[in-house]
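## tool: complex_structure
## caller: assistant
## args:
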Amino acid sequence: MESLENQLEKHETIIRKYLLDWLDSETARKIDEKIITEPDFFDLVSLLEAEIVDDLIAGRLVGDERLRAEKIYGLPVNQDKLNFSRALSKVTGRNRLETQAEDSDEIRPVPFLPQAGIYLKRFKWRRLIPALTGFVVVVSLVLWYFFPGKRTAMERELTRINRENIIQIEGKKVQSLSLPPDTVRAAAPMPKIAVSSDDTVIGFRLGIINIDAESGVATFQDDNGIELFAVSGMKLQSDENGRYVNVFVPARFLPSGDYQIDLQTQQPDKTLAQASSYTFRVIRE
Amino acid sequence: MEAKTELDILLEWLSPDRDKAERLYLDLRRRIAFVFRTFDDAEDLAAEVMERALRNIKNKKVDFTGQALHYIYGIANLVKMEQFRKKKLIHLDDMIKEPSTESQKNSFPEELYQIIEECLKELSTADKQLFLEYTFPPEGVSIKEYREQLANKHNKTVKHMRVKMFRLRDSLRVCARKKLEDSL
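## result:
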């Protein structure tokens, strides 16, 4: 004997059509036969019919379903079903309201605040939880935006600088440093740049060999391997000396010391692949 | 010893246990009336089906080797086909006649409200609370989502909730029908 839950899953759609007289005569006949010969099957039909009638009374049926249900359950033979559903709806609705009113009375009043206590007694404190959660989230986002962490603030400025045309970096002195890719500079001394003021912008030209990509991400690390910041979305360019990427960094982001840049390029499948590494030294004049 | 009536024979065919057979018979009448539910005179047609079955038993036209329910279905199908031919069916797509206005007059038994209140009190507190919660979602909430949440809250699937609610509703229906009959 199959459970009603399993039967519901298997037969709900077709029985609903049967109940709304939406089946061809042969299929309807087969369901008639099951109703008469299988009492358990009739339980399922009764369940779905009850739901249809209750939905009809509650105004939850729409369109053709509503029209068909109104016509079928408006017939005299089905009057009792409609009456029962209507009465049940009214009685349970009344009982539900009483139950909800009783729930609110269970909240204890705040002492020493008679008038407010009456209001507070009836106030559903649990409704405050979503509002409070939302308030905390909004405040956190605002604080994060206006008071960002150090790295976030640096990367925000780097994004702005590196997306604007170099000509638009007005009033800033640009000092250039060309860094060849790993394989080329193997035996060469570490490239150095002498920075005269914090107002300077350092323009790194990072050489790349044999990379077929459109854009890259450059991650700057100090000589302890700690990541300081990353610059993303730089376009790969080409000239007579080969492929390269330009990265502009405010000098104040790089105090005196040794640094490493890891360049990754974005592949067609949107993943990042290691392209090259570079080291350099910053000297303050 | 009294001779068996056709009804006795039919009941025996349904079940050798007389009490069970009588329950099966009443349930069978209800199911037969159900398959005629789109007919004006569904109850009369269900009675016609049973009368034909009893007449055939009396006239020894019944082969009792098969199951009683399948035999009864055969008669019900025959009666239904005859009704289609007589066009007594009210078609939904092209109404032959409107439902009688007399049936739309107040045939609502006012005592049903009180009776259902009494039947609701006979449910356990937990069942009553669950039934009320299930039947009346809060305002502005999708009933489908609300019932899914209610099912999760009670560690049940939605299907289990639907079956449970049907059983509670049916117990209220049976209770109400009995009290209504007793009051007449």
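## assistant note: Residues 33 and 46 of chain B are 5 Å apart (CA to CA). Chain B touches chain A through 58 residues (CB under 8 Å). Handing back to user.
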